[in-house]
């Protein structure tokens, strides 16, 4: 069994907006029926990298997953990847929102996409605007090497109105 194919299938599941622990449980059970051996540690490592919040929830519901995450020390406070916060400053004064009320800005960062994506998924990216204050980051896309597109929404009223 190729781990690449398994991870591709898992990625497909994890990227679905409605992905939950039931989907992970179903994926794991299908793997148990389909394959002679299932690389549980590879699966858990990948989920920890892509969706640590979902892995935490799944480990609360599944004793085996809880044991594996404890053995791999994922729940230790020394895990700095999920503790880091990225701060982005911008000014939307000259920007116009799209028809849905979202603003799009380009952002350059020397950080790797995987770390930025993890911070986005765990809501560890804080975007502030000189005009509107704190903004909601609702979307993230990689537009080039070290270039990212951020979709932003206003949290409240302008602090100057």
What is the secondary structure topology, with strand pairs?
Layout: H1 3-14, H2 21-34, H3 40-50, H4 52-61, H5 63-71, E1 86-90, E2 103-108, H6 113-121, E3 125-129, E4 133-144, E5 147-154
Parallel strand pairs: 1-3
Antiparallel strand pairs: 2-5, 3-4, 4-5
Could you give a short description of this structure?
The protein is an alpha+beta fold and 161 residues long. The chain folds into 2 domains: 3-71; 86-154.
Question: Can you describe this structure?
Answer:
It contains six helices and five strands. Helix 1 packs parallel to helix 3 (40-50), helix 3 packs across helix 4 and helix 4 packs across helix 5 (63-71). It has helices spanning 3-14, 21-34, 40-50, 52-61, 63-71, 113-121; strands at residues 86-90, 103-108, 125-129, 133-144, 147-154. It is elongated. Strand 3 and strand 4 (133-144) form a beta hairpin. Residues 76-82 and 157-161 have low confidence and may be disordered. With 161 residues, the protein is of the alpha+beta class. The chain has a five-stranded mixed β-sheet. The chain folds into two domains: 3-71; 86-154.
Roughly what is the average pLDDT, rounded to an integer? 84
Report the major sheet. Answer: 5 strands, mixed
Shape: elongated
Please report which band the strand proportion falls in: under 5%, 5-15%, 15-25%, 25-35%, 35-45% or over 45%.
15-25%
């Amino acid at each position: 069994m190729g781990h690449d194919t398994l991870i591709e299938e898992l990625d497909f599941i994890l990227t679905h907006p409605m992905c939950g622990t039931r989907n992970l449980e179903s994926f794991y059970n299908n793997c148990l029926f389909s394959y002679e051996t299932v690389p549980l540690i590879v699966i858990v490592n990948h989920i920890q990298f892509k969706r640590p919040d979902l892995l935490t929830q799944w480990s609360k519901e599944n004793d085996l997953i809880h044991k594996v995450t404890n053995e791999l020390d994922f729940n230790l406070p020394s895990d700095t990847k999920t503790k880091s916060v990225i701060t982005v400053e911008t000014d939307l004064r000259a920007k116009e929102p799209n028809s849905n009320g979202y603003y799009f800005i380009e952002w350059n960062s020397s950080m790797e996409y995987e770390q930025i994506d993890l911070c986005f998924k765990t809501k560890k990216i804080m975007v502030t605007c000189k005009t509107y204050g704190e903004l909601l980051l609702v979307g993230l896309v990689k537009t080039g090497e070290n270039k990212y597109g951020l979709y932003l929404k206003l949290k409240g009223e302008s602090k100057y109105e």
